[in-house]
Hints:
By secondary structure, the protein is an all-alpha fold. The chain has helices at 21-52, 60-99, 103-110, 114-135, 137-142, 148-165, 177-208, 213-246, 255-259.
Amino acid sequence: GVGAGVLASDTSSLSIDPRTPTAEAAILLLELLGEYVLIALLVLNAFLIRRLFRQREGDEIRQRMGRFFSLSAILSSTAVILSSLFFLYLKARELSLLTGEHFNDALLSLLHTNSGEAAVIRLVLACTIGFLFYFFRKSIWEKNRFTFIEGILAVLTCALMFYRATISHASAAHILPDLAVGVNMLHLFDKGLIIGTLFLMACVVLPLVSRAEELQVRARLLVSRIILWGLLIGGVSASYIAWLHLKDWSNIHSDWGYRF
């Protein structure tokens, strides 16, 4: 897990014993929720919003939905930024307590670890994503075609998932670790798609189309297709990850065996 392990003499492979599991879990939850909503925003805009309002340009419901989606993008980016900062502070403080170093020295040591580097990269990516969502909000939410900015945002969001996957158990896999990281990234993306879509559907889309029965029916149909594809892809990636942790068929009766 993130930040798990023992203190090593080589700072390039340094990891830290968890001392505040509750705070770390809350930070991880905040970051994942922010990342999941960012994924869902891009997918829903491309495959739901544009199809719902293809023949209703300038529709008031679409404009309101665009404003809510824009706010959701800013809040989600902020969640990832804050969680990355909290993570760095928390782990640097733990390292300082473990080694007796000054906090600033401990922070510098942390930044030379895989977890520290990944957290900084996710911080930068989240800042960039939030910036692009804010300054190009009109072209993103009002255009009827997929825009170049959305393509950039999709790449940046995939990078965000990649640097989350690189500090998972998959990176320590003995068999094809690069493939394991890639599959874990796909699995994270897929979970983000499902959870983020359901969250936005319940909190934004359905309340805004509640008085337009036709839009509500079409929205449910389109979202159900997105969720179905997500479940199919997630089933494959989850099976591979479970098998990766299983390592041997003799472990089929272990916890990971039952998950598999």
